Each structure stands twice: as structure tokens, then as C-alpha cells.
Amino acid sequence: MVAEAGIIGAILAGGQGRRLGGDKPLTDLAGRPLLAHVVRRLAPQVGRLVLNANGDPARFAGIAELQGLPVVPDTAPNQPGPLAGLLAVLEWAARMQPAARHVLSVPADCPFLPHDLVSRLALAAGDGVALARTAAADSSAHSHPVVGLWPVSLCQDLRVALLVEGQRRVGQWAARHRPTFVDWPDTPLDPFLNVNTPDDLAAAERLLAVHPGN
Question: pLDDT, tens digit, for every residue of 53-71?
Fold first, then answer.
């Protein structure tokens, strides 16, 4: 695995996680916070990793995998969703990392991200946008617009879409920019499984036990 030096990885953890009853990124999964599993998957693939999170960043201080990671809060008011997190990181990248070409966004509740996520999205995106999908055996596909590769140059376009036009859906905003889709199989496990509920958490525990290095 080779890190893509010009790509910043952004873990979007700005949501409130009500369905899991609290601070979802800190929920225990197989003895480690859920967020730690995401960091372990993504960090080796990118040149720099950033956490988008609101509230007190001190709550992440005890997580070894997060030591030294910048915590970038939303710049849009009222936590309007993942587009706000993406905007915050794009703005941070434009200001703090001028050599970065793209931001790779992932949600903070995907513990099984593919090890080739960044390389395949970067190859497909070129100078544009690439989004992840899972492809099932029956030839159906399910897109995951929050798992995407975004040019830093789209920062102002997103600011207008979010704060002026009131856009809230990642997929709708992405469609403006004609994204390329990259498919991963959903077996032996869905690499983009979201842990949203206690049942999802139990399923992820079982999958980790069976596929610890997948």
C-alpha cells in the first residue's frame, strides 16, 4: 500500500449519533473506539489525515490512533450534515495544505474501508470527482456519496451550494460535477458498512471476528 501524498483524508464525525445513544465515533468496537478502526484503515493510504468533529476535541485525547491529527470543526452553523464537514475540510486544505489536490471523505462509522480505497478512487477521478459503490452479485449497485474524492478547487462551489442554495444531500451536490463511480464487491463483507444502530454494531463485531484483516 502506497500513500497518495497529494490527498488529504477527511473522517467526517460531525454528526450526533443519536441512534447509538451517544458519541458514535467513541463507541466501543472489539475493544477499540469505532473511530480508531477507521483511522487504521485510512491513515496508510493518504498523505495527511484530518478529523472533522464538533464539540470539545479533548474527548479524542485518549485515542492513540488520533494523536497529532488536526480536528477541524464545521464552519457552517447548526450542523447541517456531512456537506458541512466536507466544506470545513476543503477550506482547511485550501488554507493549510496548498499542495493538496484532493480531499478523500469517509464517514466515521465505516470500520471496513477497503485497503485500496484511495488508490482506486484517485485513478478514476483524474482531476474530477470519484465516488464509491458496492456491487452485489445480482448486478445491483449501491452508491456511497460520503465516500468520495473531491478536488480542493470545489471549495467555493460547495460553500455556495450549502450556505446560499441550502443544499444538504451529498449525492445531489456531487451529481453537478459528473462523478466517476468505482465499484467494490459486497462479499465477503460490505466494505462500506455503516454502524448506525446497536444491531449494526453487533454485526460489525461478528464480521471482525471472522474477517480480522479483511
Answer: 998 999 998 888 888 899 9
User: Distance between the two ends of the chain, CA-based, in angstroms?
Assistant: 14
Q: Between 82-96 and 155-163, two packed helices, what is the crossing angle to 10 degrees?
A: 150
Q: For the range 196-203, what are the long-range contacts, defined as Cβ-Cβ under 8 Å and sequence gap of 24 or more?
A: 196/19, 196/20, 196/24, 196/109, 197/19, 197/20, 198/20, 201/20, 201/27, 201/29
CA distance 137 to 134: 10
For residues 14 and 6, the answer to whether their CB atoms sit within 8 Å is no
Supply the pTM of this predicted model.
0.93
Q: Is 210 exposed, middle or buried (0-12, 13-18, 19+ CB in 10 A)?
A: exposed
The per-residue pLDDT for 211 is 83
The domain ranges of the chain are 4-210
172: region left, alpha or beta (phi > 0 left; psi from -120 to 50 alpha) = alpha
Distance separating alpha carbons of residues 128 and 56, to the nearest angstrom: 34
Q: How far is 61 from 195, CA to CA, in rounded Å?
A: 22
CATH code 3.90.550.10 for 4-210:
yes
